[in-house]
Amino acid sequence: MRIMPWHQSNWDARAAGNFIGGGSGTGLLIFAALVALLNGSPADYRWQAVVALIFIAAGLLCVLAEIGRPFRALNVFLHPQTSWMTREAMVAPLLFGSGAIAAWQNGGTFSAIAALFALGYLYCQARMLAAAKGIPAWREPKLIPLLISTGLVEGAGLATLLAALSSGVAPRWLAGALLAALILRRLSWKMYHAALEQQGAPKQTLEVLARFGVRFSTYGQSIPEMLIVAALFIGSELVWLLPLAGAAAAFSGWALKFTIVARAAYNQGYALPVLPIRGQGQPIPGVKPGWSK
Amino acid sequence: MTRYIMTADLRRCIGCQTCTAACRQTNATPPGVQWRQVLDIESGEFPDVHRSFVPVGCQHCGDPPCLHVCPTTATYQRDDGLVEVDYDKCIGCGYCAVACPYQARHITHRVAFAYGGEPMASESARFDARRMSVATKCTFCMDRIDAARENGQTPGVDPEVTPACVNSCIAGVLSFGDREDPNSNVSQLLSATQHFRMHEELGTDPGFYYIWDKK
Lengths: 293, 215
Fold this sequence. Notes:
The complex is a heterodimer. Chain A is mostly helical.
């Protein structure tokens, strides 16, 4: 009989895949629209939008592979009053519709509309995880800005990578936006981790996050940040570093979400605020096994 | 209004697991799935050590997180406070399972029986395919509560309409009744004792009270 928190077994790598695909896809759709609107390069937009929609669709296919009764999947639309999963599902057709039209038109007004729906979808995903009260690592409200910021980092990173692949070099402002998003994600991560430590969490959750945090801060944050700074401020001959920075930023975001969803998701466990008194005994302090505080 | 709750007098529980067995027998849950469990918690340091037995399961929360997150409305709350699952609506997404801070929800994807692949006659007779790959949990023996409405009996007083775990308890640990009725057994019990609810700080308004001392 387990008493201490143990790792939840209901959402695994397939669920993480939804957050990875959804976050990267929506982030890319947002930055592809910005590139199209600011740089006027519709050829780039079309294939970036297609890649973004493939990411989001792959995430949804992961969900379909995870649920027990996939043939009833349409029931997911029945509870928009309170369920962020329903809300995510309701935004999805609007996102795919507007994204497909925008891709077909090589940008234009629909690229902005698709970007807005993408932002909504990303927000729903962040709220969805935070609504899972049974998992301390997820219900922390500071996870919401972390998931949104990493979605933007992944989108900007992929946009930088794809722009370099298609036209040789990413716009300077896009690299600057990626740097800003990385800084935002660094702050969000610190606040999220600090909040968990301050309020208390399952010890194993904190251990997983601490181990991951060292690698994440180095390879997922510091290195891409330094690559961007080098490319932007040292010399134009270093612009080839930008796609590397974009790839590192995106990949680290995937690792972050995989870790939070499939590695650090220890449940609440059980606790007694006070122990039962038998006979003439005195009140005995309670127990909360497996928790940091 | 009615709000059915359960109480567990932790001073009395001896961890015999009779309630667990009664629940499994009544609800025909598959191996590994126990809607009612009794935790055996050892705490303290020698020589000041303690052992507590704690029945757990769905707390039929007043503000159930599983209900809010459910995308299909398969999880619903009745007027009498019971939180239930419509097996025909559930898609088995597991969102309720990760939203429940009491680890009370179970999803079984493979058909399993007590003695391997072949069911015993009793298992065969009571196998419910609707429960496969959807969320299941303690129902507070909902069918008995419904029967009480029809025949005028009182859950928690009349054994025929009282949850199986409560009926089976050999030490009088578990009680069941309407918290909104000041004369009910559980209201009387709670007014005479000190009690807590597990993880109450999460704002779930659980319907399961743990009695730990007299007043």
